[in-house]
TrEMBL record, chain A:
Its EC number is 7.1.1.8. InterPro entries: Cyt_b/b6_N, Cytb/b6-like_sf, Di-haem_cyt_TM. Residues 23-249 form the Cytochrome b/b6 N-terminal region profile domain. Keywords: Membrane, Transmembrane, Transmembrane helix. This is Cytochrome bc1 complex cytochrome b subunit. It comes from Streptomyces meridianus. It comes from the Bacteria. PROSITE patterns: CYTB_NTER (PS51002). Its cofactor is heme. It is an enzyme of class 7 (translocase). The keyword Membrane applies. Pfam families: Cytochrom_B_N_2 (PF13631).
From TrEMBL, chain B:
Residues 1-20 have a biased composition (Polar residues). Belongs to the Rieske iron-sulfur protein family. Pfam families: QcrA_N (PF19297), Rieske (PF00355). Residues 253-348 form the Rieske domain. This is Cytochrome bc1 complex Rieske iron-sulfur subunit. The keyword Manganese does not apply. The lineage of its organism: Bacteria, Bacillati, Actinomycetota, Actinomycetes, Kitasatosporales.
């Protein structure tokens, strides 16, 4: 085999190198691929099912791009009115925009067009769901800690942009459902104080609906947002490679190593194969489950609507906000402040921002500047876990609010009752979820502590000589002992005055006081169960054998 | 205990109490070499990577062969499915609808194409994953991590280089150049902003006016005939548009988005709002159909109570009481159109709406 450049035309022994090797040599001379391959070909990746969530997001993005490009070949992003004469008989003679007519054509006249449309739409739904769940995995395991905060933000931006890309795509066919969604958006834009009407006129090229929004949304949907997302995605993946993947705690896994299997061959086969699995499943979904049957309701007309209109799930959250908000409107000095719409419009980004900035808040509270490559078990970070659970619960409450009419009709409840439930729930449910989750975490920590000190319950009942029944506890192996005790426990910051290095006392600033408060909340007595120390363990195990 | 080389920044007060103990394990790859005596000191210490456990396929040649055949079978099924895809594309007519339990009546072509494509893709994936799991080495390896932070020497070098570069540029000394450069860079994006001006016209009064004006007939949206009072029965909701607005007008969508009207007949004695009664004709009242929340068209009418409901977010308006909001997120009543009857006995508008229809906005007042 050729290993050096002394004999470029062939192997060192004078024979010609195989063709593949010669191609690789050629490329290396121009791209330096051997250097890249050396660093990456046998790169180690740890294995865990939850690490596949991000992969699902990645693969569905690729699937969406492939199918999206196919759709552009047939879709006409135009709002010119045409009379329909295609294959779908019930629509014959109806006036509609070219966008809608071409979507009907894709569905009824292009063989396989319907399949690709449905793969595109199912792909979008899977994409956003995968991103959200992936983000939750990162959140609950603390994978966002240093050095990965920036990658957390990249991922967050991908989620937000994905929502907007989905929304603009949903609007393109210009059918009754999507038009209703666009109208909702226009109404929300109008509510913005001072500049609302201007924004709306600039967005729609005049009054709603006008004839511009489909072509405009089209370039946003197929070019602007996917372009930005592609850039972010590449940056996201480069950082994953650069930082190396995090791993769960366990025997042999330290903060300074990464344990797993090499990219080539195992992960190339697994990850490559997984792409096909995801693509296969989404194709099968598109085969058996109709999504967005745009032909069912007809083209958009601003004076027509269907009942039970629902956005895709990732927008159901904003739908909930807008539905439960009381219709506050303030008229002052000839101006109107449309709080009933504007407040929900503002809460939406605020709720998203809350999760986005969380890593920075936590690192400020801990003051920890070290790198973290070993994941937390969620129970060992009760406050964080409780915060994440509360955030998700808010999402669910609003999702329920977004479907209030469906709940009412399916379960024969009054809309009024549901609305009030969601209004109260908006404030109460996250708080309750926070408290309950934190308690569960502490309970689990306590159990871990007991397991370490007293061993695992074996299920075997033993009768002692004096007649008492006890359960035999099996001591843990060292692997488990290590896994259950390896995590760090932060100590809370004391709230008293600070003494600087010269021994001078100084009052704490407001920020420092707040930080000390938060630190107490995070790591104070009620917020974590001290993990067993070696001394405690040895005292119990070396002493009497009675558990 | 140099954990990552960067922990020097952690303030003493909240360092993990036991950080200095051996919990972190040895650096790099900690193999299982510790003797039991050593382990006894710290029962929680990292025992190192467990030894590799071979799979059946690693020991039993026949099992490995079986795996190989499974993988090959999956790849073969994929090929067959692709052939099936092509065959479906050629054979099945695009408009054939079939009944497939439990999915109902669905397009045969879509079903066949989707399933064959799905199968072809899935089998490649399943084959590859099975191959990786059963036949490729599953031995775990450990690789070292290196701190992301640059070592101090590198940082010092970079700072020095930067300083030299900055000095050579004269950026710091030549204030005039610096200031004007920043000015120019700050101003040039303005051109881009200016260019956005023609995205749309200014709102001006456009949202305040609709096609309605004095004398315009109310045209039934379904029959396209002008409405007479007798056409409006008790208990039904009639939709109307202004005369002269045709579906193929180029601005039909925009105009109908503001002018759409709903008409009901209420016993005059049931009308609670004085102005509403004044603006009605023999109990026939005309209201904007566009919800004042975010603009959905209202479509549901409850004839006993004269409530109308917007299907989008359930705002409910009482048409017998000035269309005030009785439930839901809408912020104000639906605008009413003043109507009468012309000399030929047709319903006509007596002017435009006296307030903007649809969602609220800042200038609405
Ligand atoms: C990256 C995230 C993307 C998401 C979440 C997304 C989502 C969607 C959704 C939900 C629809 C509505 C489909 C329907 O039910 O009719 C749609 C339509 C469409 N998308 Fe995308 N899309 C994405 C990227 C792309 C890209 C990259 C392209 C093209 C290069 C594209 C091209 C199209 C076209 C042409 C339509 C309209 C055709 C139709 O509705 O049948 N999309 N998109
Ligand atoms: S648009 Fe009518 S209730 Fe929201």
């Amino acid at each position: 085999m050729s290993t050096s450049s002394t004999n470029p035309a062939g192997g060192t022994d004078g024979r010609k190198a195989p063709a593949g090797e010669r191609v690789a040599d050629w490329a290396d001379g121009r791209l330096g691929i051997y250097g890249l391959a050396k660093a990456n070909m046998r790169k180690i990746f740890p294995d865990h099912w939850s690490f596949m969530l991000g992969e699902i997001a990645l693969y569905s993005f690729i699937i969406i791009i492939l199918t999206g490009v196919y759709l552009t070949l047939f879709f006409h992003p135009s709002m010119n009115e045409v009379e329909y004469h295609g294959s779908y008989v019930p629509m014959h003679g109806i006036l509609m925009s070219e966008a809608y007519a071409s979507t009907l054509d894709i569905s009824f006249d292009v063989r396989g067009g319907l399949l690709i449309r449905q793969i595109h739409h199912w792909g979008a739904i899977v994409f956003l769901a995968a991103m959200l769940v992936h983000m939750m995995r990162v959140f609950f395991t603390g994978a966002f800690r240093k050095p990965r905060e920036i990658n957390w933000l990249f991922g967050f931006l991908l989620l937000v942009l994905g929502m907007f890309t989905g929304f603009t795509g949903y609007s393109l066919p210009d059918d009754l459902l999507s038009g209703t969604g666009v109208r909702f958006m226009e109404g929300a834009v109008l509510s913005v104080p001072i500049v609302g009407t201007y924004l709306s006129f600039f967005l729609f090229g005049g009054e709603f609906p006008g004839t511009d929004f489909v072509p405009r949304f089209f370039s946003i949907h197929v070019l602007l947002l996917p372009g930005i997302m592609l850039g972010l995605l590449v940056a996201h993946l480069i950082l994953v490679f650069y930082h190396k993947h995090t791993q769960f705690p366990g025997a042999g896994k330290t903060n300074k190593n990464v344990v797993g299997m090499p990219l080539m061959p195992v992960y190339m086969a697994k990850a490559g194969g997984f792409f096909f699995l995801v693509f296969g499943v989404i194709s099968a979904m598109a085969a058996i489950a109709t999504i967005n049957p745009i032909w069912a309701l007809g083209p958009y007309r601003p004076d027509q609507v269907s009942t039970g209109a629902q956005p895709d799930w990732y927008m159901g959250f904003s739908e909930g906000l807008i539905r439960i908000m009381p219709g506050w409107e303030i008229n002052l000095w000839g101006h109107t402040l449309v709080l009933g719409v504007f407040i929900p419009l503002m809460i939406f980004p605020l709720v998203l921002a809350a999760i986005a900035v969380y890593p920075f808040i936590e690192s400020w509270v801990t003051g920890d500047k070290r790198e973290h490559h070993i994941l937390d078990r969620p129970r060992n970070a009760p406050t964080r876990t409780a915060f994440g659970a509360a955030w998700i619960s808010l999402y669910w409450v609003l999702l329920i609010g977004g479907g209030n009419d469906l709940w009412a009709t399916h379960f024969h409840m009054s809309i009024n009752a549901i609305t009030w439930f969601v209004r109260v729930g908006f404030f109460a449910v996250p708080v309750l979820t926070f408290i309950v989750t934190k308690r569960i975490c502490l309970g689990l920590q306590r159990r871990d502590r007991d397991t370490v000190l007293h061993g695992r319950e074996s299920g075997i009942i033993k009768r002692l000589p004096h007649g008492e029944f006890v359960e035999v506890h099996e001591p843990l192996g060292q692997e488990q002992l290590h896994a259950l005790t390896q995590h760090h426990q932060y100590q809370p910051i004391e709230a008293g005055p600070v003494v600087d290095e010269n021994g001078v006392e100084r009052k704490r600033t407001m920020a420092e006081k707040l930080r000390a408060k938060l630190s107490q909340g995070y790591y104070g007595q009620d917020s974590q169960i001290p993990k067993p120390t070696v001394e405690e363990y040895q005292e119990i195990t070396s002493g009497h054998g009675h558990h | 205990m140099s954990q990552t080389g960067s922990n020097k920044d952690v303030s003493e007060e909240n360092l993990p109490s036991e950080q200095a103990t051996a919990h972190e394990g040895a650096m790099g790859v900690p193999p299982r070499t510790k003797s039991l005596g050593e382990v006894a000191d710290d029962p929680f210490a990292d025992p190192g990577l467990p030894p590799h456990e071979p799979r059946v396929q690693d020991i039993d040649k026949r099992a490995a062969k079986r795996s190989e055949r499974t993988v090959a079978l999956l790849f073969t099924v994929s090929m067959l499915a692709t052939v099936g895809f092509i065959a479906s594309y050629v054979v099945l007519p695009i408009d054939k609808i079939v009944y497939v339990w439990p999915f109902g009546h669905i397009s045969a072509l879509n079903f066949a194409l989707g399933l064959t494509l799905g199968l072809a893709l899935f089998c490649i994936g399943a084959g590859a994953v099975h191959w990786a799991r059963t036949l490729m080495s599953d031995e775990e390896h450990a690789q070292e991590r290196h701190p992301i932070e640059a070592p101090p020497e590198v940082k010092a070098q970079v700072m020095a280089d930067f300083k030299q570069g900055a000095e050579e540029s004269g950026m710091g000394r030549r204030k005039l150049i610096r200031t004007t450069l920043f000015g120019a860079l700050a101003m040039v994006p303005l051109s881009g902003v200016i260019l956005l001006r023609d995205l749309g016209p200014l709102p001006e009064g456009k949202l305040r006016h609709t096609l309605w004006s004095k004398g315009k007939l109310l045209v039934n949206q379904n029959t396209n005939e002008p409405l007479r009072p007798e056409d409006v029965g008790v208990g039904s909701l009639t939709f109307a548009v202004p005369e002269g607005l045709e579906e193929d007008d180029h601005d039909f969508q925009k105009e109908v988005a503001k002018a759409a009207l709903m008409i009901v007949r209420i016993q005059p004695e049931d009308i609670k709002d004085k102005r509403e009664l004044d603006w009605s004709h023999e109990g026939i009242v005309a209201y904007s159909k566009i919800c004042t929340h975010v603009g959905c068209p209202i479509s549901l009418y409850e004839q006993q109570t004269h409530h109308v409901l917007c299907p989008c977010h359930q705002s409910t308006f009482d048409l017998s009481d000035g269309a005030r909001v009785i439930f839901g997120p809408a912020g104000h009543a639906l605008p009413q159109l003043r109507i009468g009857v012309n000399k030929d006995g047709y319903l006509e508008a007596l002017g435009d709406f006296d307030e903007p229809v649809g969602p609220s906005f800042w200038e609405r007042g």
